[in-house]
Write a structure and sequence with these properties.
Order of helices and strands: HHH
Helix content: 40-55%
Subcellular location: Membrane
Radius of gyration: 33 Å
Organism: Danionella cerebrum
Distance between the termini: 92 Å
Membrane topology: Single-pass membrane protein
Family: Belongs to the UPF0239 family.
Protein name: Protein MANBAL
Strand content: under 5%
Number of helices: 3
């Protein structure tokens, strides 16, 4: 009843050049994705926010008598509607 068990680790072949390139390419892709995700999460620098705050954002406060502009309908949309009516 004595059974000879081979407990040595299985032989793993050496990775080929293509497998090595694929492995490192996947690592670089993962690092690039993490950098992109972190760039969207981390807020921008303070110097960028300060330069935006210097410019006047609200023109209504400086000229209260100025009328608000009503956006004119786009001519392309008018042309589409007219061409549909002609059909």
């Amino acid at each position: 009843m004595s059974v000879d068990l081979d407990l040595s680790p299985p032989e793993v072949p050496e990775p080929t050049l293509f497998e090595s390139l694929l492995r490192y390419g996947l690592f670089l892709g993962a690092i690039f994705q993490l950098v992109c995700i972190l760039a969207t999460i981390i807020p921008t620098s303070k110097s960028h926010e300060q330069s935006e705050s210097v410019q006047p954002n609200d023109t209504r406060s400086s000229d209260p008598n100025r009328k608000t502009k009503i956006p004119a309908p786009q001519t392309r949309q008018k042309m589409k509607k007219e061409s549909k009516k002609k059909r």
